[in-house]
């Protein structure tokens, strides 16, 4: 961005050529080296006999028109095109455009989630409630053994005090393993539906980012949301994307 901003400035500055002092300019007029002068406010754009273009700034109150005409110099006067505000806009507008483009692409990289480009550390977990459709074990078919094991978690969520009174510990989670399309997500939603608790779903790849600390921040934010909605179910799909083996690549999300 800095390089592009410099190029913009250099491009705008080189359009008017090099600059010479006003006294040097008058000496060139007397020597007959000037063929044309464009008067633009305080700025004089000068073309010499060889075709080279340069600029000079005339002092306040100085009017070289008569001297130029006497030296057979072609004189062209233009109204001052830009005010101080317009000059400032012309300098800063390219820089502001670059910032806007950067924010746009960063927002696209972050998936357009809440907080936009500044919401790097915000969790992308989606909260599903009964408004999105209630799923129960009756909607799951073909995996009866898995349903029987997960019914224990439903009992813990429904009546946790019954187990805690007897000294039992509530399960912290369950690992569902299987090929894609075998009903892992549906089972997790069925647990939430049977227990009547909110259901958070997120992909493990959302925790892996090129910026250090973003993944850890999203984990913290996700569990803060879960605590506010407790008791609830947090379903992390493709969790192996977070726990892959360390490599020599440029991404460091797996180290977090």
Can you walk through the features of this model?
The chain is rod-shaped and about 110 Å long. 40% of the residues lie in helices and 15% in strands. It is α/β, with parallel strands linked by helices. The strands form two sheets. Strands 1-4-3-2-5 form a five-stranded mixed beta sheet. Strands 6-7-8 form a three-stranded mixed beta sheet, covered by helices on one side. It has two domains: 2-84, Signal recognition particle alu RNA binding heterodimer, srp9/1; 114-255, P-loop containing nucleotide triphosphate hydrolases (Rossmann fold, 3-Layer(aba) Sandwich), CATH 3.40.50.300. It contains eight helices and eight strands; from the N terminus they run H-E-H-E-E-E-H-E-H-E-H-H-H-E-H-E. The longest helix is centred in the middle third of the chain and has 26 residues, at 84-109.
